[in-house]
Amino acid sequence: MSGQSAASLRKKPAAAPPTERILSWGRYPKTAHHHVHKPAWNDQVPEILRSASPGALLPYGLGRSYGDSCLNDGRELIDCRRLNRILGFDESTGMLRCESGVSLSDILDVFLPKGWFLPVTPGTRFVTVGGAIANDVHGKNHHCAGTFGAYVRQIGLHRSNDGLVICNSRDNPDMLRATIGGLGLTGVIAWADIQLKRVAGPWIDSESIPFESLNTFLDLSRESNDRFEYTVAWLDCFAGRKPRGIFFRGNHSADPGKEFRAERGLKLPFALPGWVLNRYAVRAFNSAYYRIRSTRKGAAVDPYDSFFYPLDSIRQWNLLYGKQGFLQYQCVIPETNVEAVEELLDRVARSGMGSFLGVLKQFGSAPSAGMLSFPRPGVTLALDFAMRGERTLRLMQSLDEVVQHSGGALYPAKDARMSPVLFEASFPRWRGFVPYIDPKMSSSFWRRVTGAQ
Amino acid sequence: MTAMRKIIILGATSGIALGVQRLLARLGCELLLVARSPERLADLQSDLSVRGAPQVLTYCADMASIQQHAAIFEFAQTTFSDFDTVLLAYGSMHDQKDSETSVDTLLEELQVNFVSAAAILTLFAADLERRRTGCLAAITSVAGDRGRRSNYVYGSSKGALSLFLQGLRSRLHPAGVRVITIKPGPVQTPMTDHLPNFARFAEPEQVARDIVSALERRSPDVLYTPKVWRYIMTAVQQIPETIFKRLSF
Q1: Within the 60-119 window of chain B, which residues sit less than 8 Å (CB to CB) from chain A?
Q2: Co-location of A129 and A256 in the same domain
Q3: Is A88 on the interface with B (CB under 8 A)?
Q4: Mean pLDDT over residues B178-198, rounded?
Q5: ipTM of the complex
Q6: What average pLDDT score do residues A233-261 get?
Q7: Of the candidates A72, A65, A64, which has an alpha carbon nearest to the alpha carbon of residue A37?
Q8: Is residue A193 part of a domain?
Q9: Does A414 score more than 90 pLDDT?
Q10: Domain range for residue A122?
Q11: What is the pTM of this model?
Q12: Vertex B185, ends B219 and B149: CA angle to 5°?
């Protein structure tokens, strides 16, 4: 008890080699940190910020960023997971105030039984509120709801120089826009006010429709976007230039149905050998999945967790890719150049390094809330690649050419290797964000793409 | 025995208590939280209320200070009467080396972990014994099962508390009052962040689940959590002293 504040602030001498091995979700790159601070209370954060050297720190949540945007190699992290308290909830309006380490999973467990749901949810429930804000995450309802940041009404932000800064549309609105999508660089979020949304119950009226070309996908998207709150497509990346896949769409069921408890599912206990997920296995999986889903096409009522979070049912699925880890490639392509998506898929198919998972989604036109938010009008494509060294990186560089040529952008939360040039092309206004960075904050990603120290 | 409905947590901001309180809130228990920091207590009060606790009272006090115990006890009796369970969850773990060179640090550790704990438990024991109902539970440690070179000050303070609880259990048994000794292995909490990971540290949520299930059921009297520590400590206790004194862990 009395020893805890001293212990959590204790630092190893900087001369010792960094030993805290923290990985991001892709398990690439391998990094080591000098120290991981683990504040249990918001009142401990100012001292951590005060005693750090410039650029030493970065807030860390559940580590679901795929690359190095949640890492601070050779420096320090602030693990925010113990800052996980709900500070208030208004039953009449659905306004939630919680600390930044509260997970979306926790919010669902507490509030879905009361009839409230997340306004926007990414494909996993195991992210923190802080992480959802810092990456301005999007979900299957982007076409009608925008990003997570659109529902963040107010933030209490620990800054190393200014103490706790309250940011909302009236006070410090620029700091709010910088912090949404700000990759954790603007400070440590103490708490945030988030607008939840009313739902009747935990069920989703869903439909799945097979498609066999990009144009069919676009037609399906266009005709669904008005009628369906959630749309997304799974893609079989081995089909080459004529992509085939399954289009999923759904709405919250108006019928409350019966309550159920989310299952926690299997857990992969260790990293599989890298060769297990070889191209033949992946091709066979994709093909089988397509066949099974196309025969089961049509309407269904799904529990919300299997509709939104199919991959969460295998915990630590990232270990499927073995010790070397994997890279995700998520880009957005402007609709006027949508044929670039076919070119990307063609290059992937020709490389023979097929992606286990391909996801396609049409973004809406609502402007994102953050200065560095990724979502913008167009089609977003996400692909997974096992890390096989140089040739994987070369394939991704060749994809970069297509993205850049089409006027597209890459998603920092998924990235471990984009060039400064592509970052500049993706976020041409990033220099306007720089003044809002807290001088004590930095990240591996930020140093890599901007050359900051 | 009455069901667990109204629970007093002494040391409500400790790492293990946080997990226990969440589960109790979800079960719909009423809570009285005692800790030092008013700000932290206020945060816990809102958190646990939203999570389902129908009533969350807080009382600001330093458990290490025995002069404050009478007031804590009186507050509990007047505003949280008919409480049925008391969980003592606070503790202190200094760097052992500091206790070897400073008698003040040594005494502080013994004061927090044993002397003050025995004092407050005595107050609550008398009350429950008179009412012939309820449950007293206290978090000690597997470190109290054997004195180790690297951790014997903390170990002896917790071992003394375990012995105290053992006697108290026997005394309160005729009155139908349960006494539970909770012995966690190393747990990932702020108290242990500075320790090298010499063994697998348990998640506080797992330890919390074990504690709540021990509070709900009639057994066991002595809870090892995670369970494997019962077997580990049985084995450790078998090592002859002539060998054990040479071990540096």
Answers
A1: 64, 90-95, 108, 112
A2: no
A3: yes
A4: 88
A5: 0.92
A6: 84
A7: A72
A8: yes
A9: yes
A10: 86-199
A11: 0.93
A12: 130
